Amino acid sequence: MKILVLNSGSSSQKACLYEIGETLPAHPPLPLWEGRIEWGSDTAAISVKNSQGDVQKENLKVRSREEFVRHLLNTLNVGPASAVASLSEIDAVGHRVVHGGPHFEDPVVATPQVRSAIADASTLAPLHIRAELEGMVIVESLLGPVPQIAVFDTGFYRQMPLYAQTYPGPYDWFKSGIRRYGFHGINHEYCAGRAAQLLGKEPKPLKVVSCHLGNGCSVTAIQDGQSIDTTMGFTPLDGLMMGTRSGSVDPGILIFLMRQDKLNCEQIDGLLNQKSGLLGISGVSSDMRDILSAMKEGHERAKLAYEIFVHRLRAAVGGMAAVLGGLEVLVFTAGVGENSPEVRATVCSRFEFLGLKLDSEANQQTSLDRDIAAADSRVRVLVIRAEEDWAIAAECWKLAQASAKVGRTG
User: Fold this and answer.
1) 63 CB-side CA count, 13 A
2) Of 121 and 404, which is predicted with more confidence?
3) What pTM does this model have?
4) In the chain, what are the domain boundaries?
5) d(C-alpha 368, C-alpha 299), whole Å
6) What per-residue confidence (pLDDT) applies to 66?
7) Lower CB density within 10 Å: C or N end of the chain?
């Protein structure tokens, strides 16, 4: 079964093609094909490779997101890094959908009714959902009536304790759907399972704090294989400082800006989502690599941005450890988590009181899915490759198998 996965992020578009046989493998296989678009201010960098190691790279002037996604998917069967003879070989398409709202928890076939319900949640994650729905339309136009399956980032958090889901406003908020949904759940859930595999343990007894650090950032506390708490809330704007997003701020600031500077909701939305975070503080970039480079050149605002980022991250990790009543495994994943030994070392240095000791040499290595804690550390520290695409493909395969089983039993 060939499954195409579309993963639309706030600053990138990823896609992968997997082939899964009659049984689901224990570890993520090498995709048949994978592509990525990195959106710049006026250009888009497209990179594609297949399982044979063939590579195609382009840097093109930005016209429209839809045009570039179509171009990316056309490289599946056209060009030096193609992987299939025809797009008709694809059996199903999985989509990462950031926000399921109050309606969705489990993966579901993206019928017109489902798409309409997803669209209703677009105000809660505007940077993502429009792109995800657009991806479904593009797939339909290129592949025809292939099954498309929505897998929800918020699904992992539907079992969180009510006290962790509920905001301390009027209770009517909760009844009307205003609550803490949580995000990055697909990858946090995968990382908890992968951590157990790497340590040779069952996932349920482990107390895991998982740090998903990319352009969007969140920390999740996981116990007995379930989310207990997380930093993101009603929208992906809550919690940690991020690339261009502010994370948590005093809501009184927003009231002040509305009264003092006469800002409307669109202006405030733009400030918090696009002009804050690492970019807003540093004035340099939303990319941690650029922040670190600027710091080395003595850029004071870049240094401040880094210090705020790690301060808030340490506070979140400590808070999640308190919620769990201990910490056995600390996970770093996603772009910054996987590739910044500086961030990992700075964060871990404050948790020696928990018996956490980092192996500085292991921390500098670039290989993923490894333990970077010292041998005598009481807390294991793992760097795990984000595998949202594989996790989505696996969910699509499970749904297909369940549907086939239902069909066989009548």
Assistant:
1) 7
2) 121
3) 0.91
4) 2-152, 201-384
5) 30
6) 83
7) C
Q: Is the pLDDT of residue 376 over 70?
A: yes
CA 242, CA 218: separation in Å to the nearest integer?
A: 9
Q: Which two tokens stand for residue 32?
A: 């048949």
Cα 205 from chain centroid (whole Å)? 24
Q: How many CB atoms lie within 10 A of CB 271?
A: 17
Q: Do 201-384 and 2-152 have the same topology in CATH?
A: yes
The two tokens of residue 288 are: 């941690």
Q: Which residues, at least 6 apart from 12, have a Cβ–Cβ distance to it below 8 Å? A: 36, 37, 38, 39, 215
Higher pLDDT pick, 64 / 227: 227
CATH classification of 201-384, choosing from 3.90.1150.10, 3.40.630.10, 3.30.420.40, 3.40.1280.10?
A: 3.30.420.40
The four Cα atoms 17, 21, 27, 32 give a dihedral, to 10 degrees, of -30
Phi, psi of 333 (to 5 degrees): -150, 170
Overall average pLDDT of the 398-404 stretch: 82
- Decide if 50 contacts 79 (C-beta within 8 A): no
pLDDT of residue 407 exceeding 50, the answer is no
Rounded Cα distance between 383 and 368, Å, is 6
Residue 408: what are its φ and ψ, rounded to 5°? -70, -30
Catalytic residues: 153
Q: Which CATH number fits domain 2-152: 3.10.50.30, 3.30.470.20, 3.40.1360.10, 3.30.420.40?
A: 3.30.420.40
